[in-house]
Write a structure and sequence with these properties.
The structure is a single chain. The chain is of the alpha/beta class. The protein folds into three domains: 128 residues, no CATH class; 249 residues, no CATH class; 271 residues, Nucleotide cyclase, GGDEF domain (Alpha-Beta Plaits, 2-Layer Sandwich), CATH 3.30.70.1230. It contains 23 helices and 29 strands. The strands form seven sheets. Strands 21, 22, 23, 24, 25, 26, 27, 28 and 29 form a nine-stranded mixed sheet that branches. Strands 2, 3, 4, 7, 8, 17 and 18 form a seven-stranded mixed sheet that branches.
């Protein structure tokens, strides 16, 4: 739950950040949308051309600035080449030093030439005002406003048919993506030089501007399609349109019907401008704005884009977080590039087909951050879980088992019902051992820990799991939580190895002058219910089931029968070909009414095959049980005495106990159909 809360909080913070939309996000968004401009195929607009004044032009026609008469002659040259409109983005703010202003004024008066003026930061105003019709809401809060304007000298201003504002509006990163079509000086509106060109081309005397509550909406010159703008009266420039470029000093081609822009690119004259497609000359921006408006492709960023981007960011991040937190981090890692590609190409499609500028970067950024956070939280949760599993099971299971549990925690948390083999073991001879240590509790503790280490190692080596230590007793299982298809055999083999470990441990402590100890173990196979059990404050991995209690009761009979390792009937049936067994009894353990056969394990079959005399003794052993079941107790006692020293003396205590039982049963009134099952009265 905690990781979900943190992930949702991060999503809300990121959505809140997008809603606030600080300037740096706007910069990232603009950079992302620039990619669409760069991916466009370049096209040539047939009714536009650029004629540049380059270094070669200056060398051939003379040093700049030219006198106004030479400028007028070059304008005439362009019209003679067929130009319909000549754009001269030059500020004629001062009188000509050679007194040639009249020559230029005459040409301007006779031709539809468009010249420029610029906004100023002081309150001087020598600009030329053209008619602008504004409809709708107040435009003053929206249109770029300047204190003043610097226009051409009066003689030229009066003669010029069109004078437009030469103004650009770079973004905070210095890149020009938009251009103002109208600006304000005082209470008056001034069209950009691009608007003046279109007005002259349309033969109109003014243009219209529509303003709404959200700012400027549209500009219109009757001959052309309505021009959509942003709230400040800017248009987004379409940089895919290119214009043919010619040098002024060279022979010009046929320019019939073309709007010709005079561009100054000579060293020291040009004004480089950064754009999404690279650095261009400021005069080329005029061409870009004209191409944008004349082709009728209005690149816009509609009002709904902010909401769409916000929703896409939130929903995408939520989906990604859900995938990471419920499945795995790498599913999110696969899904992340899918979102990236989908967002980019979806945004690209909207730009190409509908001219909509939609940001693809922030949804992707949001999803990446959320994926990173969710993946980190998932990793930390899993790491913590793995460390808890390691802490819980490090001393109770082999490294292999611990690693598998770390990789599959559900094996612990979810619980399971499966067939397992359970082994209980208990120390024998603790009393004399404890007495030998007297008040040396530390020494006794060390001995006990050494004993537990000795019997635990075979369990771990066989990938069994220690469930618990109970004083000087232990409980372990096989086939859970990880699978062991051969678990009955593993359990019995481990039991024998535990007995061998006790023998070696005794060799050590006897050499230290301590009394030897023994061990009894009981094994049973059956269904068990496994999982985390306990309270919310303290819990552990445990197993429950009838087979578990049966295993415990089988182990409790080791001392009574004088056997070291007893197994239940189910375990015997599954492993009888692997180990040498002797039937111990048919017993109804306490709490049971149905008898079960229990067996003792003396060795594996490989060892038994080397001791063929055991096979003869085994048949006598089975005959003894047959005598007992048929109530021929004296014959059973005779065979017990004969077998007393067989099996290397390992069963001597067992046969002594059996003799006592037969003597006791001789005194008991038994039914004729008595089945030989012994009813236990203790655990």
């Amino acid at each position: 739950m905690k990781k979900w809360i943190i992930s949702l909080f991060v999503i809300l913070v990121l959505c809140g950040l997008r809603f606030a939309d600080p300037w740096f996000l706007d910069m990232v968004r603009l950079k992302a949308m620039d990619q669409h401009q760069r991916n466009q195929e370049s096209l040539t607009l047939s009714n536009l051309a650029t004629v540049e004044i380059n270094n070669q032009t200056i060398r051939k026609l003379g040093q700049w600035p030219w006198d106004r008469n030479r400028v007028a002659n070059q304008i005439i040259k362009l019209y003679q080449a067929g130009a319909s409109i000549v754009v001269v983005p030059i500020l004629f703010a001062d009188p000509d030093r050679f007194g040639k202003d009249a020559a230029l004024a005459r040409i301007l008066k006779k031709t539809p030439t468009v010249i420029g003026q610029i906004p100023s930061n002081d309150k001087s105003n020598s600009g030329v005002v053209r008619g602008v019709a504004s409809v709708g809401s107040d435009w003053k809060p929206w249109v770029y406003r300047y204190p003043g304007v610097v226009g051409p000298i009066p003689e030229i201003a009066k003669s010029a048919n069109a004078v437009g504002m030469m103004v650009i509006a770079p973004e905070k990163d210095g890149v020009v993506r938009r251009m103002p079509l109208v600006v304000a000086v005082g209470e008056k509106l001034y069209p950009s030089i691009s608007m003046e060109i279109l007005r002259i081309a349309a033969g109109d005397i003014s243009f219209q501007m529509k303003t709404g509550i959200a700012g400027v909406e549209k500009l219109r010159i009757p001959k052309y399609k309505m021009i959509d703008t942003d709230a400040n009266g800017n248009i987004w420039l379409d940089f895919k349109w290119k214009t043919p470029v010619y040098a002024l000093h060279e022979k010009l081609p046929d320019l019939t019907g073309k709007i010709v822009i005079l561009s100054m690119t000579a060293s020291g004259l040009g004004s480089p401008v950064a754009t999404p497609v690279g650095v261009i000359q400021s005069h080329d921006l005029i061409a870009a704005s004209l191409a944008t408006m004349m082709t009728g492709r209005n690149i816009t960023r509609p009002f709904w884009t902010d909401l769409a981007e916000l929703v896409a960011s939130g929903v995408g991040a939520l989906i990604l977080a859900s995938v990471v937190l419920t499945l795995a981090w790498y599913f999110g890692a696969v899904l992340l590039p899918v979102f990236l590609v989908g967002s980019f190409y979806g945004s690209s499609y909207l730009f190409t087909e509908y001219s909509y500028l939609v940001d693809w970067s922030y949804p992707v950024l949001t999803m990446f951050v959320v994926w990173a956070v969710a993946a980190f939280l998932r990793f930390m949760e899993e790491y913590k879980q793995k460390m808890e599993i390691k802490k819980q099971f490090a001393g109770y299971a082999s490294p292999t088992v611990v690693r598998l549990l770390q990789e599959n925690p559900s094996l612990i948390k979810d619980g399971m019902k499966k067939e397992i083999s359970i082994c209980f073991s208990d120390l024998r001879g603790f009393t004399p051992l404890g007495e030998s240590f007297g008040d040396d509790v530390k020494g006794l503790t060390e001995i006990m820990n050494g004993y537990m280490d000795a019997i635990t190692q075979p369990i771990l080596d066989s990938n069994g799991m220690v469930i618990k230590y109970i004083g000087d007793a232990s409980m372990h299982i096989h086939n859970a939580p990880i699978d062991d298809p051969d678990h009955p055999r593993s359990a019995v083999k481990t039991g024998l190895q535990m007995l061998d470990a006790v023998v070696k441990f005794n060799d050590k402590i006897v050499a230290e002058g301590k009394p030897p100890i023994g061990m009894g173990a009981g094994i049973n196979t059956g269904l068990g219910y496994l999982g985390e059990m306990g309270s919310t404050m303290r819990h552990s991995y445990d197993v429950l089931g009838d087979s578990v209690s049966t295993a415990a009761r089988i182990e409790s009979k080791c001392k009574e029968y004088g056997c070291l390792l007893l197994v239940g009937e189910a375990t015997y049936d599954l492993t009888k070909n692997d180990f040498f067994y002797l039937k111990v009894d048919e017993l109804a353990v306490k709490g049971k009414t149905i008898g079960i056969r229990i067996y003792t394990v003396l060795s594996d079959m490989d060892w038994m095959m080397k001791n063929t005399d055991w096979g003869i003794a085994e048949s006598q052993h089975e005959k003894m049980h047959e005598y007992y079941r048929n109530q021929q107790f004296d014959n059973a006692i005779r065979l017990c005495n004969d077998l007393m020293n067989e099996f290397d003396g390992k069963m001597k205590n067992y046969y002594s106990m059996w003799i006592e039982r037969c003597e006791f049963m001789k005194t008991q009134p038994l039914e004729k159909d008595w089945n030989g099952v012994f009813i236990a009265t203790t655990k």
